[in-house]
Amino acid sequence: MKGFGVGRFRIGLALALACVAGSARAEISDNVVRIGVLNDISGIFQDTNGMGSVEAARMAAEDFNGGGKGIKVEIVYADHQNKADVGSAIARKWLDVEGVDAIVDVPNSAVGLAVNTVLRDSRMTFLASSTASSDLTGKACSPNTIQWVNDAWATGNTTAAAMMQRGGKDWYFVTVDYALGKGIEAEATNYIEKHGGKVLGSSKHPLGTSDFASFLLQAQNSKAEVIGLANAGGDTINAVKQAAEFGIQEGGQTMVAFLLFVNDVHGMGLKVAQGLQLLEAFYWDMNDDTRAFAKRFAARPGMNGKMPSGNQAGVYASTLAYLNAVAATGSDDAKVVVPQMKTFKGKDKLFGDTTIRQDGRVIHPMYLFEVKKPEESKYPYDYYKLIATIPADQAFRPLADGGCSLVK
Predict the structure, then answer these.
(1) At what angle do helices 84-93 and 109-119 cross, to 10 degrees?
(2) Family per UniProt (predicted)?
(3) In 3D, which of 129, 397, 127, 381 has the Cα closest to residue 269?
(4) Could you tell me if residue 142 is inside a domain?
(5) In this predicted model, what pLDDT tens digit does every residue of 68-109 receive, in sequence order?
(6) Do 49 and 122 reside in the same domain of the chain?
């Protein structure tokens, strides 16, 4: 695999713990369940995903511990470099040659949609725990795909609703110019305009932008009450840092980050990030279960005390849910495993009350947070204060509205 694509991606292989008391059932291909973590290891999502997602998948495999049936699990990983052609080529190689049974993670909506197409109607399962495009449970829905954590509908609609309830009627968007940003802006705009608000303008920027000055000045000059950052990762960090230099929040405008994670806040520091509003599905310091997971994660090789992002928590939760379905059915074929996953309704330790719908959307509560002031933080990664809890049945697009062909 090292020669594939002349070094266009790197792949590592780690054998997860397996109980050897008995052999896996015959329906499990090659007598091993292989899960591929596909993400951005070297680019703008390396902190929120990267090798932390690989460790999260390994933790899930270890906690699964053979599922009481001696099922062997292997975790492989690769870097999609935020390129749809690279991501789909890796997925195809894993499907046709490497015997990988499920792909998990996949930040970057363009890559996620490409992988979704490759895996449709194959024997592989797509655990889209970091792909934010709501098309995955809408017009592009697939019987092979389960979408965890966040999506553009939830991010756009739920964040806009929460902010408008707090008085934010006039908006300006700073948006990354690819599927993720466009989807979030479109969903938020639709909600804002339907509920009496106005969108005063929007600036589009390329992925990986370093200079946000012109975009932020346009946002500042618009006099919009809310400036929405419809981007993610390093783009959001750079935008927030430069907004602080312009004194945007000090001037009375509120900034909301549609896709921000605790790792991003850590990277920019509380002095810069304080007062920022954001929507999250997971926060490491929410309760005893999330804290226990986070402390184990922080102690993993290479994590150096870092707390997990919502995306990394999603990798753990979706990987473990998939493996539990494999154990329940004795098969790693998506045609068997995915329907079994969709029967789940209960409490997930990291995401709370959880249901997996017919369209593949996992619904769970979402939370509006505000980033604390430096003097409010009492210990490392104590960054958020809870503003509002959005119940699971309100946080995501209604089942009947997505246009998914899987919905009867």
Answers:
(1) 30
(2) Belongs to the leucine-binding protein family.
(3) 381
(4) yes
(5) 999 999 999 999 999 999 999 999 999 999 999 999 999 998
(6) yes
